[in-house]
Structures are given as C-alpha cells and as structure tokens.
Write a structure and sequence with these properties.
Blueprint: H1 9-15, H2 18-21, H3 29-42, H4 51-85, H5 92-111, H6 119-138, H7 153-158
Helix pairs in contact: 4-5, 4-6
C-alpha cells in the first residue's frame, strides 16, 4: 500500500490545494504563493489576489496570535498559582518561567494592538486552565486553588515572586 504522506517538498506542493501549489520567484509551495500575494497587494492588483485563501490565512494568523497570548497567560498563571500554594518549592526555573511568560505576553500585546479588545476574554479563559493544570502538576486538589482568578491582568504581568529558598534548604510554611 502506498504511503499517503508526501515525502519531500515537491510532493507537498503538488498535493497542496491549487493556490498553495503555485510557484513564484523560483520558490515552490506556500512560501511562493505568499510572496506572490504580497507582490500583488503592493502593486494594487487586488483583482488578481486569491482572496478567499488569503483571507483564511490572515484569519488563521490572528487566531494563532490570540492562542499564543492565551498560552502565555495560562503558563504564567499556572506558575503564580504554584508559588501561592507551594512557596517552599519555588525554584529559579519557576522564576524564569514567570518572567519569560510575562515578557511573551507583553510582546504579543504590544505587537498586536488590534488584539486589545480581546484581552479580557483571553485572560479570563486562561485562569481555569491554569488552575486545573497547576493542580495536576502539583498533585494538590483543584479545590485548594482559588476558584476566581486572584490577579488582574496588570497584576499578573507585573508580578514579582519572592526569592526562592537557598538550594538544599526548604522554607517552612506558616
């Protein structure tokens, strides 16, 4: 039985839908099609655009950026919850994850001003998932984590966790 998956770039471009199979600027496949669409836009040749595939691609790109922001917020909140519930287990790795996810979220928000109207929904969706995953990761029942998000988005983006305990010594909880 023949393998239905294309084996190389040539097979992928031949198997792609018509707009993706075009070759432009000696570049096959989707890249060439994207270059062609950009050239057509710059030239004002709107009648020659593959409008529906281009619109679909732009929509997919917007959704992808919103998912990336949601993922950054979820991971950020997940680690903040872990710090809240298990402060004695705080590590440099957790600090790094918090800082990197704050940075990623800020970059996405700044780079995509049109996404701002969706921020509250993206942030609200992130918390229940973060709560669930923090419970799974820590082994602590989900009921021990706050039901409602205890941080505003601004608080989460500016959150600075405490310093982790020195290696080899755990901090006792009060």
């Amino acid at each position: 039985m023949a393998n239905p998956e294309p084996k190389d770039l040539t097979e992928w471009t031949q198997a792609a839908p018509a707009p993706m199979a075009r070759t432009v600027h000696e570049e096959p496949g989707e890249y060439g099609w994207l270059v062609q669409q950009a050239d057509l836009l710059r030239a004002g040749r709107f009648d020659a655009l593959d409008r529906q595939p281009l619109a679909d691609l732009l929509t997919d790109m917007a959704v992808s950026e919103m998912r990336a922001l949601g993922s950054a917020m979820r991971v950020l909140l997940q680690h903040m919850l872990k710090v809240m519930v298990q402060p004695g287990k705080l590590t440099r790795s957790w600090l790094y994850t918090i800082a990197s996810q704050q940075d990623e979220a800020r970059v996405l928000i700044k780079g995509h001003p049109g996404m701002r109207r969706h921020l509250s929904a993206i942030y609200a969706d992130a918390y229940p998932r973060a709560r669930h995953l923090a419970a799974v990761e820590t082994g602590i029942p989900e009921s021990r984590f706050p039901t409602a998000n205890p941080w505003t988005m601004d608080e989460a983006l500016s959150y600075v966790p405490p310093e982790p305990p020195p290696r080899g010594r755990k901090v006792t909880q009060s």
